[in-house]
UniProtKB/TrEMBL annotation:
UniProtKB keywords: ATP-binding, Nucleotide-binding
Sample GO molecular function, one term: ATP binding
CDD domains, sorted: ABC_DR_subfamily_A
Name under which the protein is recorded: ABC transporter ATP-binding protein
Database matches in SMART domains: AAA (SM00382)
A matching Pfam family: ABC_tran
Protein origin, superkingdom: Bacteria
Domain ABC transporter: 5-230
PROSITE patterns given in the database record: ABC_TRANSPORTER_2
Keyword Nucleotide-binding: yes
Length: 291
């Protein structure tokens, strides 16, 4: 697998505040990444640096070995769809599609028009005349049709209803299967999209606190339910995220990163954890007291 993006000890200071704190990670070619984290964690700030919209204060970001900043060759390989402000308000949808290949050389105009129709967008209307959900659907249509080797969506579906969001996920996956590319999706609707992700990166207060393959994450995070005296001795080498006790029944929610948990007796019930719950627990500032 070829590395597309190399983020090397990157920090970003804005107005004397360290927003990104020494992040190192890489993004491989043709994989789908979930970039997750709480509000204000630093996801957009990192994506702006990866797309060359701002420079790191320290460290380097390279796309195929080159800095994306002020680099039209690299920029032409990137499509970054933000939660708003992607298009000029005065432009009509049909003109946005007409001129889009100038920015995204791989964009397939016919496919873009097909997507516009799928989302029932009025091609003759200006962006300023569209509803919030329609503007988001326009961004998503351009993002998918761009077929850019690096396509980044930052919370792209503000105002879109559940059915339209599902259409987005289905179309993205369908087109990715035929035209693989690196896709990074930042979202708070984690469970809705978790099936799309191949890898998950979690940012917490500017630091990269987790980078893991989705199958590993699913396999290694769960809740154990049973008698406290039976469960406690098993928790020596795992990360305990939460403990609860209710009428003699004890539950420990754990992340067993290094697969250290011994085999379980039949008296202990093992329940899987949703990705959303895992992310909430991993970023929970008020760590639960032992019960
Ligand atoms: N131009 C700026 N001036 C001052 N602070 C900024 C600026 N841009 C970002 N920040 C701060 O950086 C932090 C991270 O912001 P960022 O937008 O990267 O978070 P995020 O993880 O994308 O959040 P969300 O999920 O809410 O979109 C926040 O505390 C934000 O206030």
């Amino acid at each position: 697998m070829t590395c597309l993006i190399d983020v090397d000890t990157v920090s970003k200071v804005i107005k004397k505040e360290k927003i990104i704190d020494s992040i190192s990670c890489s993004f491989e070619e043709n994989r789908i990444y979930g970039l997750l984290g709480r509000n204000g964690a630093g996801k957009t700030t990192l994506m702006k640096m990866m797309t060359g919209q701002s420079l790191p204060t320290e460290g380097d970001i390279l796309i195929n070995g080159q800095s994306p900043f002020d680099n039209p060759t690299v920029q032409s390989q990137i499509c970054f769809i933000k939660e708003s402000g992607n298009f000029k308000e005065t432009m009509k949808i049909k003109d946005i599609i007409k001129f889009a290949p100038a920015y995204y050389p791989n964009l397939n105009k016919d496919f873009a028009l097909e997507l516009i129709e799928t989302f029932k967008l009025p091609a003759h209307k200006k962006v300023s005349q569209l509803s919030k959900g329609m503007v988001s659907a326009l961004g998503i249509s351009i993002g998918i049709a761009s077929r850019a080797p690096l396509t980044i969506f930052d919370e792209p579906y503000i105002g879109m209803d559940a059915a339209a969001r599902q259409t987005f996920y289905d179309l993205l996956l369908e087109d990715y299967t035929i035209h693989p590319r690196t896709i990074i999706l930042s979202t708070h609707l984690i469970d809705e999209v978790s099936n799309l992700f191949q890898d998950v990166y979690l940012i917490d207060e500017g630091k990269l606190t987790l980078s893991e393959n989705i199958d590993n994450l699913k396999e290694r995070s769960f809740a154990l339910k049973g008698k406290k005296e039976e469960i406690l001795p098993l928790l020596q080498h795992v990360q305990v995220l939460k403990e609860t006790a209710f009428i003699g029944e004890y539950t420990a929610t754990i992340y067993d990163k290094d697969m250290q948990l011994p085999s379980l007796p039949p008296t202990i019930e093992k329940k899987s954890l949703s990705l959303q719950n895992l992310m909430v627990l991993l970023t929970d500032q008020k760590k639960e007291e032992r019960v």
